[in-house]
């Protein structure tokens, strides 16, 4: 339990700061008054339609993407795997582009299409992987192939219809500036379901970490568990992409940091991913909206600028601790 | 008890593997001896339910292919040749041996913990229980995995070349553990290259050559067939009468 305390304190602090900091039109006292059921209509609008949905979206996306990365890295025994490597991000990107082509005046369609794309690509990658033996390599290679196919279709659409690019660029950097409460209501329950299934089946990941043969000998249905894991990762990524765009990096950095700082059972590792991922993405989102206030930076930009040096620092620290040359 | 009848395993290359009849009993240590590529590992993996086959492999009251997941793992425990030094401590690894009994949903019971503790004691790994697997030597790592297999508490234990990378002392300890498990009523089937050790620590020997079972019998029954052994392995074994020799059977030209 002790290992969760510091990340939880950080998450609570960042959440409180994200709730109270921002536009001066609504101060701390106003927020407390709105939370108590008072306040003006505009203050209620800012809190319930802008700030709270954004915080919930950032927390749930951070948790979901981190666990999705943790699941994929664990089940494929590859620390550089993330939803992006399996083509999930590019699948979502392709469908967002299609939505800009097919339903240019429907903002809600973008999210639905992103989710559909993520899910569809995962199903295709899973089917391909089953056809090619469902081994670690075949899953990754199937993902890379489908990802490349999605990119080529994206490039084709851009060549034929260049006006769709602006929408796609904003989506690809990722962020929560335009997140709507109705989308959070649609995506957050899916994330909760995905997280619950991942946590319930987490002991199987410990068994799988011993290798396919050993896991089979211990009674684990290796192919079935790998399929469940990939599907869970798709649901988690799809729901997150639908809220915040392609914030893929968090799915790579948080699981790696958790694995480097904590060695133990997967269930505890996933809980740490949930807390740390949520805190990290919310922190990045809060920085992105306050650092050049009243303007805003895309969250994905801040995420990479903080995340990449932090990952490098952790890698160097670990190497020094092991005394490797 | 495992009974094999008319077993055929088809490879994607080369001749199929055929065994007309073979059986393994509980309470015995059986060594499968043969040269590289003769089919020892294939046979073990098939018994462990990992490869498709035609014919019959009866484990207890059911056919091998009829067992599903964890039920199969309560009957047979399999330790492959290649094992991984993952980032986890020895105790956690051994606790994973109880997975077929508690699955994803149940916590370790007092009974599970007792099996884990017993397994660590049998293999002498108790003092290393908090050590990370990455910090163990090759021999200790194998013993840690053996502890896990023992904690699995299956009726038959299948060990694929269990003494690979071990020094002589560790190898002997490993075989003594196998004997101890057999004495407790468990069936131990292992593959090995070392004829001397196979004869010295086993109740029964299965000799394999070119994907066929050439001979089966007790060490006493087979020790006389020196010419056959010389043809197959380039060496034979004899009973040792020398008090200073390490094993009851020794290697001869």
End-to-end separation of chain A: 35 Å
Low-confidence stretches of chain A: none
| Estimated helix fraction of chain B | 25-40%
The CATH homologous superfamily of chain A is termed: ABC transporter involved in vitamin B12 uptake, BtuC
Instruction: Write down the Rg of chain B.
Output: 18 Å
CATH topology of chain A: ABC transporter involved in vitamin B12 uptake, BtuC
- Judged by helices, strands and strand pairing, the structural class of chain A is mainly alpha
In terms of structural class, how would the helical and strand content of chain B be classed?
Answer: alpha/beta
Care to count the β-strands of chain B?
12
List keywords for this structure.
heterodimer; A: 325 residues; mainly alpha; ABC transporter involved in vitamin B12 uptake, BtuC; 14 helices; 78% helix; globular; B: 253 residues; alpha/beta; Rossmann fold; four-stranded antiparallel beta sheet; 10 helices
Explain what the structure shows:
- The complex is a heterodimer of chains A (325) and B (253).
- Helices cover 78% and strands 0% of the residues of chain A.
- By secondary structure, chain A is mostly helical.
- Chain A has one domain (2-322): ABC transporter involved in vitamin B12 uptake, BtuC, CATH 1.10.3470.10.
- The longest helix of chain A is centred in the N-terminal third of the chain and has 36 residues, at 41-76.
- The model of chain A has no long low-confidence stretch (mean pLDDT 83).
- With 253 residues, chain B is an alpha/beta fold.
- Chain B has a single domain, classed as Rossmann fold, CATH 3.40.50.
- Chain B is 35% helix and 25% strand.
- Chain B is built from 10 helices and 12 strands.
- Chain B has helices at 40-47, 69-75, 90-96, 99-102, 110-123, 138-151, 168-183, 195-201, 219-222, 226-233; strands at 2-9, 17-24, 29-34, 54-59, 62-63, 76-79, 156-159, 187-192, 204-209, 212-217, 236-239, 249-252.
- In chain B, the strands form 3 sheets. In chain B, strands 6-7-8-3-9-10 form a 6-stranded mixed beta sheet, with helices on both faces.
- In chain B, α3 packs parallel to α6 (138-151).
- Chain B is globular.
- The interface between A and B is medium-sized, with 22 and 33 residues.
């Amino acid at each position: 339990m002790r290992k969760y305390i510091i990340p939880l304190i950080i998450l609570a602090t960042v959440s409180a700061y994200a709730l109270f900091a921002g536009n001066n039109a609504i101060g701390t006292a106003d927020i407390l008054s709105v939370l108590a059921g008072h306040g003006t209509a505009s203050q209620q609008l800012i809190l319930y339609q802008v700030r709270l949905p954004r915080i919930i979206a950032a927390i749930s996306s951070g948790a979901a993407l981190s666990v999705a990365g943790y699941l994929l890295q664990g089940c494929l025994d590859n620390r550089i795997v993330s939803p992006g490597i399996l083509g999930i991000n590019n699948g979502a990107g392709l469908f967002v582009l299609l939505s800009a082509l097919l339903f240019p005046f429907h903002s809600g369609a973008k999210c639905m299409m992103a989710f559909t794309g993520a899910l569809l690509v995962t199903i295709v990658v899973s089917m391909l992987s089953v056809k090619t033996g469902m081994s670690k390599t075949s899953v990754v290679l199937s993902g890379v192939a489908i990802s490349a196919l999605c990119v080529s279709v994206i490039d084709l659409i851009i060549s034929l219809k260049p006006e769709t690019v602006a929408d796609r660029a904003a989506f690809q950097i990722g962020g929560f500036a335009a997140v709507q409460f109705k989308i959070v209501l649609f995506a957050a329950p899916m994330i909760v379901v995905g997280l619950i299934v991942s946590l319930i089946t987490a002991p199987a990941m410990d068994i799988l970490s011993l290798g396919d043969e050993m896991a089979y000998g211990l009674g684990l249905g290796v192919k079935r568990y790998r399929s469940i894991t990939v599907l869970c990762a798709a649901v988690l990524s799809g729901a997150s992409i639908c809220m915040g765009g392609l914030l893929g990096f968090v799915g790579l950095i948080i699981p790696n940091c958790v694995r480097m700082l904590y060695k133990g059972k997967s269930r505890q590792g996933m809980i740490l991913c949930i807390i740390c991922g949520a805190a990290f993405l919310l922190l990045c989102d809060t920085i992105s909206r306050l650092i050049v206030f009243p303007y805003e930076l895309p969250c994905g930009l801040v995420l990479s600028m903080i995340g990449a040096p932090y990952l490098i620092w952790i890698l160097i620290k670990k190497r020094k601790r092991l005394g490797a040359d | 008890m495992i009974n094999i009848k008319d077993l055929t395993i088809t490879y994607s290359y080369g001749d199929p593997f055929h065994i007309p009849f073979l059986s393994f009993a509980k309470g015995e240590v059986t060594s499968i001896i043969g040269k590289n590529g003769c089919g020892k590992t294939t046979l073990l993996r098939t018994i462990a339910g990992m490869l498709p086959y035609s014919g019959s492999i009866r484990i207890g009251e059911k056919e091998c292919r009829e067992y599903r997941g964890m039920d199969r793992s309560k009957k047979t425990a399999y330790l492959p040749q290649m094992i991984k030094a993952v980032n986890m401590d020895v105790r956690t690894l051994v606790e994973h041996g109880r997975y077929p009994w508690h699955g994803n949903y149940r916590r370790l019971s007092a009974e599970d913990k007792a099996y884990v503790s017993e397994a660590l004691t049998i293999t002498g790994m108790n003092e290393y229980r908090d050590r990370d697997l990455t910090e163990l030597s090759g021999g200790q790592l194998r013993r840690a995995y053996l502890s896990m297999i023992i904690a699995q508490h299956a009726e038959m234990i299948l060990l694929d070349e269990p003494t690979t990378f071990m020094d002589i002392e560790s190898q002997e300890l490993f075989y003594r553990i196998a004997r101890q498990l057999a004495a407790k009523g468990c069936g131990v089937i292992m593959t090995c290259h070392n004829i001397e050790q196979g004869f010295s620590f086993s109740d029964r020997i299965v000799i394999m050559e070119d994907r066929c079972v050439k001979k089966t019998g007790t060490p006493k029954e087979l020790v006389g067939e020196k010419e056959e052994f010389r043809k197959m392995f380039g060496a034979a074994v004899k009973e040792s009468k020398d008090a200073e020799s390490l094993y009851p059977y020794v290697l001869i030209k």
